[in-house]
Amino acid sequence: MQINAAGYLEPANCISSPNCDTRPTGSVISLLVIHYISLPPDEFNGNGVIELFTNQLDPLVHPYYQSLKDLKVSSHFFIRRDGEIIQFVSCAMRAWHAGASCWQGLTHCNDFSIGIELEGSGNIPFTPNQYTQLARVTRTLLSAYPIDHIVGHADIAPQRKTDPGPHFDWQGYQQALIQTHPCLKMGSSGIQMQARDVPYHRA
Fold first, then answer.
1. 54: which residues sit within 8 A by CB, 6+ positions away?
2. Domain coordinates of the chain in residue numbers?
3. Does the pTM exceed 0.90?
4. Predicted local distance difference test score (pLDDT) of residue 7
5. Which CATH architecture has domain 2-193?
6. Cα dihedral 53/59/64/68 (nearest 10)
7. How high is the pLDDT of residue 203?
């Protein structure tokens, strides 16, 4: 895997979302945020998430969709239950995944983060295929950008969010990364890079 010059993961399935904009001048991609999502809630393998991120979700299809009417959101990546990776927004752009958020005193986490959505919920475990692909994508991102923290949405928006939830295997995820990035350590919130042992490729 690699991130190309345009900020897209090769080889991901790219579906463009209009819900993005330019990162502020001088912003540095230093944070990776893990989320979960399923539409309808706790139902998988449909097109609800794709339709939400591309502003094509029909609010009449399901009662829950009424609460999402006119919502404009996106994420950089979406990893399905079978491990398929869909990219909606270039990593160079600001995706709208974090909402009102704060990390280490910095607000507006969308400015300096990349968001990965896992198809799932807080009620059931994620799949082995998802963890395999998440680790692969993460290693690629760590090699491309100066990311020094990996957190859950709940860590940056604790009053609003709970994802990636109680079933997310943080220890297993960290163990899958340390072969290439041995300085990644579990912190009080998520995973942090104690020292950048493997230089990232971009200036």
1. 15, 16, 17, 18, 88
2. 2-193
3. yes
4. 95
5. 3-Layer(aba) Sandwich (3.40)
6. 50
7. 37
